[in-house]
């Protein structure tokens, strides 16, 4: 029986697809404009997290996806050196040459930048609305 590649198999390709969908869903959740929209989008994020967790991994890529998701959810990537989960996560990054956690961090950072830009625009609009009201005609 031929040996499967330890990097990627069919199931890992499926995990990568779910991973990309989860990243998009997480970004959409963080971009929600009201609580109802955020709650609806969060349900999709949770469904995709469960799907990733229950889809079997057949290679290192799938394990890397699962460890990155666990790292994001449990914040173990910032834990003390030597912790088994952190060590396994760092090993997959080294072996794959791909840091799935960095992909999540990019989504979160993009959301923060959008939020800051919205706040700046709102502040600018509010400030200038006051200037226009205070200007004598």
Spans where pLDDT lies below 50 across 5 or more residues: none
Helix content: over 70%
Q: How many domain modules? A: 1
Instruction: Compute the CA-based radius of gyration.
Output: 21 Å
Outline the biggest β-sheet: none
What's the number of helices? 5
Overall pLDDT metric: 83
Element pattern in H and E: HHHHH
Multimeric state: single chain
Shape: elongated
Class inferred from helices and paired strands: mainly alpha
What portion of the residues fall into strands of 2 or more residues?
under 5%
Q: How far is the first residue's CA from the last residue's CA?
A: 87 Å
Task: Walk me through what this model shows.
- By secondary structure, the protein is mainly α.
- It has one domain (10-134).
- It is 76% helix and 0% strand.
- The protein has 5 helices and no strands.
- It has helices spanning 10-30, 35-54, 60-74, 84-96, 100-134.
- α1 runs antiparallel to α2, α1 packs parallel to α5 and α3 (60-74) packs across α4.
- The protein is elongated.
- It starts with 9 loop residues before the first helix and ends with a helix.
Task: Describe how the helices and strands are arranged.
Blueprint: H1 10-30, H2 35-54, H3 60-74, H4 84-96, H5 100-134
Helix pairs in contact: 1-2, 1-3, 1-5, 3-4
List keywords for this structure.
137 residues, mainly alpha, 5 helices, 76% helix, elongated
Concise summary:
With 137 residues, the chain is an all-alpha fold. Helix content is 76%, strand content 0%.
């Amino acid at each position: 029986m031929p040996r499967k590649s330890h990097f990627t198999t069919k199931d890992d390709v499926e995990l990568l697809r779910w991973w990309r969908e989860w990243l998009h869903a997480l970004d959409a959740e963080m971009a929600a404009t009201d609580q109802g929209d955020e709650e609806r989008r969060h349900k999709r994020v949770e469904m995709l997290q469960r799907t990733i967790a229950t889809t079997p991994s057949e290679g290192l890529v799938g394990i890397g996806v699962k460890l990155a998701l666990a790292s994001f959810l449990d914040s173990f990537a910032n834990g003390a050196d030597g912790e088994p989960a952190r060590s396994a996560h760092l090993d997959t990054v080294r072996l794959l040459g791909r840091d799935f956690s960095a992909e999540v961090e990019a989504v979160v950072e993009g959301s923060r930048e959008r939020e800051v830009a919205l706040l700046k625009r709102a502040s600018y609009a509010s400030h200038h609305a006051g200037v226009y009201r205070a200007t004598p005609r």
